[in-house]
Specification:
Shape: globular
Number of domains: 2
Order of helices and strands: HEEHEHHEHEHEEEHEEEEEHEHEEEEEEE
Number of strands: 21
Structural class: alpha/beta
Strand order of the largest sheet: 3-4-5-6-9-10-13-14
Radius of gyration: 25 Å
Largest sheet: 8 strands, parallel, barrel
CATH topology of the largest domain: TIM Barrel
Number of helices: 9
Bound molecules: beta-L-fucopyranose
């Protein structure tokens, strides 16, 4: 290679290096990979949204239908998607994910690819389209719409064969082209087993790793709905928290070694806290039902989770670097039951009141390294943040001119530049002594710390250890309303 050629290669290396450095630096701070995609950033802002399990099982009083149910069984008497959307909106949620098709294969829209759908039900004389109704109601109430399409179909004769994948993608295409913008596509990990399968009544097992050819299904979704996040145990955008109780892990890294995961894998929950050095950014979603079952069962009318329980779930999901997908089992009438509505609305009011007044705005904020300007931490903008100078022992101190009562502390990292914090503690000064309120590990998008109401003048938050210099976007201190 001659000298001229070598020089040119070196030049292009230098240009590429400078260019990638510019790209990876925002506001002068280098990101710590992996970082969220645009669609993940938008999704992450939603925090709290509804799941609706309403389908054939609502009418057969089951959790999992076999696939042999007659479409004539689906017959809600007062179905009103506006009622769902109004209550969900008033409860403070940002969207709705609907079970368009559950494992029994019944489709809530008049799919052209199957007879097993609302088009053969008595509801609206077979002229109804529940997904269309819901799309309209979501628009009316300013909510986003998401779709649950079960990969497992116990009705379809081809389930287990290659031809079923074509059917699955055809249905997906209908859902992703006819109902406006979809914010999330939800794929269940439960698949393969006994079923009706068009009358075969047999057992069909599939290789969960390979059968669905997920790579090409994801490609299709990206083409049809580029802004939608895709959920499954393995992501690629949002992953399962690993339990259905409503509780995220105390340690939750959004980073994970994605290639070690697949949907429906055994012992999934072992991976649910993520890994500090995971290669992909895939935050968790916490799904839980407001009742014991996912579907409506009249015998559970008095088993709706209480306000206290729902608050605890909210703080342990949204407050642990996850999102909360709260399931509402719509009843046989096609309405959110009064008992569920009551507790959902109470939670909405509680959250609204709690987070309406950030007491930190009345305080003076100081930092151990004097490197910051205050208002960045309370402006509700993730892109304005405080960067510390070192990775260890950074302290934010909050001082009030006189005693203040509070019981909730919140803190957020600028995850757009990568999740970093791995150890922290929160203390308040009582009678000249620092008293520990909470110590923990990860923060990520949001950490909510709830403690017994306490009066104090000084509070300090110490970021003990961090992967790289911590970038803090927001902090908050609140006093929640008393529960009656
Ligand atoms: C599970 C399903 O099998 C349940 O029926 C429900 O849909 C839940 C959200 O996911 O895996």
């Amino acid at each position: 290679m001659n000298a001229f050629f070598k020089l040119n290669i070196m030049k292009s290396y230098i240009i590429a290096f400078v260019f990638s450095f510019i790209i990876s630096c925002q506001n002068g701070y280098k990101d710590v990979k992996p970082v969220p995609s645009e669609r993940q950033k938008n999704w992450q802002e939603m925090e709290y949204y509804a799941f609706i399990h309403f389908n054939m099982n609502t009418f057969t009083n089951k959790e999992w239908g076999y696939g042999d149910e007659s479409p004539s069984t689906f017959n809600p008497s007062e179905l009103n998607t506006d009622q769902w959307a109004r209550i969900i909106k008033e409860s403070g949620m940002k969207g709705i994910i609907i079970t368009a098709k559950h494992h029994d294969g019944f489709s809530l829209w008049p799919s052209t690819y199957t007879e097993h759908s609302v088009k053969n039900s008595p509801w609206k004389n077979g002229k109804g389209d529940l997904i269309k109704d819901l799309e309209r109601s979501c628009k009316k109430y300013g909510l986003k719409l998401g779709i649950y399409l079960s990969p497992w179909d116990r009705n379809h004769p081809d389930y287990g064969k290659e031809s079923y994948i074509k059917y699955f993608r055809n249905q997906l295409t209908e859902l992703l082209t006819n109902y406006g913008e979809i914010f999330e596509v939800w794929f269940d990990g439960a698949n393969g087993g006994s079923g009706y399968y068009g009358g075969a009544n047999d057992l069909r097992k599939v290789d969960k790793k390979t059968y669905y050819d997920w790579k090409n299904t994801h490609k299709l979704i990206r083409e049809l709905q580029p802004k939608a996040v895709i959920f499954s145990d393995a992501g690629p955008d949002v992953r399962w928290v690993g339990n259905e109780k409503g509780y995220a892990n105390k340690t939750t890294w959004s980073n994970i070694y994605r290639d070690s995961l697949y949907a429906g894998m055994p012992n999934y929950n072992k991976f649910s806290s993520g890994q500090e050095y995971g290669t992909h950014f895939i935050p968790t979603e916490t799904d839980v039902s407001i009742r014991p079952g996912w579907y409506y069962h009249p015998e559970e009318d008095d088993k709706v989770k209480s306000l206290e329980k729902l608050i605890d779930i909210y703080f342990n999901s949204v407050g642990l670097n996850s999102s909360l997908l709260l399931n509402i089992p719509v009843d046989k009438r096609g309405l959110i039951h009064e008992n569920d509505a009551k507790n959902m609305l109470e939670l909405g009011r509680f959250l609204k009141t709690t987070f309406s007044n950030n007491l930190i705005k009345e305080s003076k904020i100081t930092y151990n390294d004097n490197n910051h300007s205050d208002n960045k931490l309370t402006d509700k903008n993730i892109n304005t943040f405080c960067a510390f100078k070192s990775k260890k022992n950074n302290v934010i101190t909050i001082s009030f001119p006189k005693l203040k009562e509070a019981d909730v502390f919140t803190i957020s990292e600028n995850i757009n530049l990568g999740q970093r914090i791995k150890e922290f503690k929160l203390e308040v000064k009582l009678k000249d002594k620092w008293v520990l309120i909470e110590e923990g590990t990860t923060i990520g998008t949001k950490r909510l710390i709830k403690f017994d109401p306490i009066e104090f003048q000084y509070l300090r938050f110490t970021i003990i250890n961090s992967k790289d210099i911590p970038l803090i976007s927001e902090i908050g201190l609140y006093k929640s309303p008393e529960l009656k």
